[in-house]
Glycosyltransferase 61 catalytic domain-containing protein (Dipteronia sinensis), 266 residues
Amino acid sequence: MRKTTDPCFVVLLELIICHPLMKNFQTQLEETWAALFSSIRYAKNFSGSVCFRHTVLSPLGYETPLFKGLNEDINCRGATAHDLWQNPDDRKTARLSEFGEMIRTAFGFQVNRHQTEKPGSGHNVLFVRREDYLAHPRHGGKVQSRLSNEQEVFDSIQRWVSDHSECKINLINGLFAHMTMKEQVKHIQDASVIIGAHGAGLTHIVSATPKTVIFEIISSQFRRPHFELIARWKGLEYHAINLDGSYANPTVVINKLSNIMRSLGC
């Protein structure tokens, strides 16, 4: 794993970070770019026309394989590079796992491909919080809420964890908007279970370790396969609850989480 100075990556970063909608996340993004790449230049700082030998433009939004998965069956599963080296399979990929390892390495975390067990200090259950915000002008100025009773669900899980005597569970309050990117990545790699409403914070599961379980809460307005596909392409166990609206019954969530923890021997 190493930083790259390939110009094609620099062009991609410039196009994303200069987007006006990314201003609220600019500090964390700049931290990420600095960790991943050895040299960054902003398109706005170019004094004139620039010709690049190689340029890679990544389609944003709905023109990606993740979104195309709504209507197409992409026959692909995740595996480690070591497993594929021993047992080649053109229907499996290690690319997302390798990308997650690159991110963790860039932030100074060790990547032990042979160790898949979590630390012995109990199971970390990371609840990725999603704060309401105006996601995009196309939504007509409406604040987007993916889980209307998120605090109620979190508080209910917290009480359940406090009363859980079978094993030690640490509930992590994943308020990522208030953390550095390095802190976010550490919480992801230390988690046994990652819970969250459908939203951008769950993209972090690319950095999850092989035995992590993903539990997505999906409102009726946002039934999209993005995070299910990321989990599948990383070879992670994935569970979901599909809501009738944006309200999640805390008892249903806890029952699902309890079953997941039981499968982990807890």
Observations:
- Confidence is low (pLDDT under 50) at residues 1-22.
- DSSP finds nine helices and seven strands in the chain.
- The CA atoms of residues 84 and 210 lie 14 Å apart.
